[in-house]
Amino acid sequence: MADDHTYTLAGVMGWPVAHSRSPVIHNHWIRQLGLRGAYVLLPVQPAQLETALRSLPVLGFAGCNLTIPHKVAALPLVDRVEPLAQRIGAINTIVVEPDGSLTGRNTDGFGYIQSLLDARPDWRADAGPVTVVGAGGAARAVIVSLIESGARDIRLTNRSWAKAHDMAQEFGSPVHAVPWEDRHEALADVALLVNTTNQGMQGEAALDLALDRLPAHALVSDIIYVPMETPLLAAARQRGNATVNGLGMLLNQARPAFEAWFGVLPDITPALLSEVQATF
Ligand code: NAP
């Protein structure tokens, strides 16, 4: 907890970064907890990333979040990368250590799993097969966190076959790639379906996926949060499946980062939810 002489700075580094909701989330917690500090937008061009990262200790920052396009580029630029972030292949959180060195972490996977547990406290990764749709950057954090949580059978399907195939090779068992044309059948017997593509996002087409084979007990999650209910989630809800949107992942990935910088693990309260929802 901060004392009267402490002022803690953190921020989100990206290009562009103006759209980020992270300042709303972290500044809400700073106010709610009565801390002295601020969380700011840090617009940093890709060519300036290393200089900007090395400036963090000089400027008195406790650390920062990284967003597009810096999450992968920062990996070789920091002094140490936590094993989970190394496995995911991306950093979303930088912590400035007392000696001024930089540690890279990834809290996206924690955020994803916690969002499922918030919605369904009895959720278990080993409850049955999981189908993951999409093999982009966000899918990596989702898949690694599912494996770490004990998932034993992950069916990965992606429009571009090579990405799903390569990711399955990289992560090994329990991930296996399913051809895009077989994605509808890949829903048979699943306990969890997750969309990690951008399909269903505001301005994008709905995800092209028929839910006929999806069991009634399956949990359906979409990591998109604009809109809060994607066409996939609406279709799943209408046929009686439980659903989880991407807002919980966004809010929960912020919690361990805030704790690393400010020393308190903050809560997701109704007041925070309504402040963030008001930005959509
Ligand atoms: P990305 O690396 O660009 O990956 C995009 C994915 O979408 C790829 O698998 C891509 O398939 C697929 N895709 C794109 N157009 C498609 C189409 N027409 N049909 C089928 N698949 C298509 O993006 P990302 O960083 O992983 O982000 C993906 C989504 O996750 C975004 O909507 C983002 O907002 C959301 N996200 C949410 C959170 C959160 O905290 N809730 C965190 C991170 C990301 P190909 O490989 O074939 O191109």
Describe the structure.
This protein is an alpha/beta fold and 280 residues long. Helix content is 34%, strand content 19%. It has nine helices and twelve strands. It has helices spanning 22-32, 49-58, 83-88, 108-119, 137-148, 161-171, 231-238, 247-262, 270-277; strands spanning 8-14, 37-43, 61-66, 80-81, 93-96, 102-105, 130-133, 154-157, 175-178, 192-195, 219-222, 242-244. The chain binds NADP nicotinamide-adenine-dinucleotide phosphate. Residues 108, 111, 134-139, 158-160, 163, 196-199, 201, 223-225, 246, 249-250, 253 line the site of NADP nicotinamide-adenine-dinucleotide phosphate.
Total discrete domains: 2
Radius of gyration: 19 Å
Total strands: the figure is 12
The whole-number mean of residue pLDDT values reads 97
CATH topology of the largest domain: Rossmann fold
Shape designation? globular
Helix content: 25-40%
Helix/strand order: EHEHEEHEEHEHEHEEEHEHH
- Please report which band the strand proportion falls in: under 5%, 5-15%, 15-25%, 25-35%, 35-45% or over 45%: 15-25%
